[in-house]
Fold each of these.
Amino acid sequence: MQLWIPNKPRLCRYKSVKTAGKLSQAVAAETPSASGLQHVAVIMDGNGRWAQMRGRPRLFGHHAGARRVSEILRACPPNGVKYLTIFAFSTENWKRTQVEVSGLMKLFQGYITKEARALRDEGVRVRFIGDRVRLNPKLVELMDNLEQMTSCNDLVHLTIALNYGGRDEVARATKRLAQDVASGKLDPEKVDEETLPKYLDTYVLPDPDLVIRTSGEARISNFLLWQSAYAEYEFIDTLWPDFTAEEFGTLTAKYGKRDRRFGAVNV
Ligand code: IPE
Ligand code: IPE
Ligand code: MG
């Protein structure tokens, strides 16, 4: 079966990863989680309120929020987390003011430009999920380059959801699936819950085991709807710019104490 491949082919132009970075030093401390936790997804919420509490514009909070990402990335290997997926901009976030939306787009461009080398050298493999069509071509080029230049890394897989919506993703996947059915590549009788996720943006990723949302809101706001069917959820009051590696460690440890039954009965 021919599947839609969103990423460019994997060309390992950068053969070796430098080992000087702090995250690479964490390799020694990389502990596969005994609880089976490997993928944490985070709804990074509360940047605006964090800024407002300080009498500053909302974008001040978004900049502070972007700075938290490296600390949480570094906390992944020692907590056994191989995959970190972060919600940076939703398909609904276009409803915000033009000032906030364009400030966020600039922030994403600046973040990629500034962090690209460090991410590559620290062993982070970066991927983006979401619909790129509505994004500025310059930003899309930076995203493509970052995916390409980190494509040989395997220490931590960072996936950034940008112009991402779970419903939009399922709709786009269904469109491609329907095209494959129409062209005869896919037998409609073969469509099942193994087939459909192969058309999702996340097709190479395992499903998230744990979804964390900061800022006290107890909703998922269209994030990873299909993939989180059996995830554990943590809704915590901390605003994203205040979220620390220590709190991340506490939540991952708490995950290990959950009884995950997947519909069965544990005896
Ligand atoms: C999350 O913080 C970041 C984005 C949605 C881009 P918010 O901007 O939603 O912050 P609050 O929820 O208004 O405090
Ligand atoms: C969800 O946060 C999206 C991101 C974190 C990028 P929002 O702040 O946009 O969600 P709602 O509006 O409170 O549901
Ligand atoms: Mg919010």
Amino acid sequence: MLQVNGFAKINLTLDIRGTRADGYHEVAMVMQSIGLHDTIAMEQTDGDISLSIDVPGLAADESNLAIRAARLICAHCHITGGVAMRLTKRIPIAAGLAGGSADAAAVLRGMNALYALRMTDGELCTLGARLGSDVPFVLLGGTMLATGRGEVLRRLSAMPKTYVVLAKPPVSVSTPWAYRAYDAEGTDRHPDNAAIERAIEAGDRSLVASLLCNVLERVTMNEYPIVAEYKAMMQGQGALASMMSGSGPTVFGLVERAEEAKRIAAFLRCETRAAVFVTETCDPVKSGEEHLS
Ligand code: C5P
């Protein structure tokens, strides 16, 4: 039996540079892994691929990215055996935190270990990109600039360790809808990725915080004003900065000290119906937190 963790991400930036012939958008985003993670226990079987999940609200069928990842790698590597998976779900679903992609990435890494496939990170990323644009990033993790449709990655200096408060409002946002709404509305402000990259390299947390920018934020906020409310609360409570992650609706706040992060989280739990988490920026692969046993 093997246990593998799949880590969530936040976007420090998300820029859209144009539309592509394949229907996706050309993006440029600074992505950051955070400590919040799902765990998948995996066991070899004779051929069956199965999944059980410890929470309701997420289908454990062929639409689930964990199942799709297992099927894809079995087909790709001509494995006749299968896998029985038990998913402990902590990352909120449809939240802008790449929770489904994190599960897919964990399954790819887990299958690679379970069946001693010896696939390289590059091969896993190529396979992962077929499952979702965020899968290559969550496979590698840490701090990266993601371009293309999100699968072209360049590692940046590690982000100085920062506390992250997450607040997921009780609404779900469809990613395709957010991109379509952006196409209709556009933006008046784009992130300065070169500047945030320099700020990260300099280890200047406050400067990083001042450069957060997500071009999908405005369209999602217009549709779901609760996102703007949570952001104002985070800022009002003293977060260095606050922004929506991905296509939303999760709002995160960057915070310098643990006590402050706990205080802000307690405030949000009291004042809103959000699912609230306190976590930290991290580099899971480098720190060896990815494999439990
Ligand atoms: O790649 P993934 O399946 O996560 O993408 C979900 C949807 O988000 C796509 O079908 C597309 O509508 C939108 N998307 C996009 N451009 C990207 C990534 C996602 O338009 N770079």
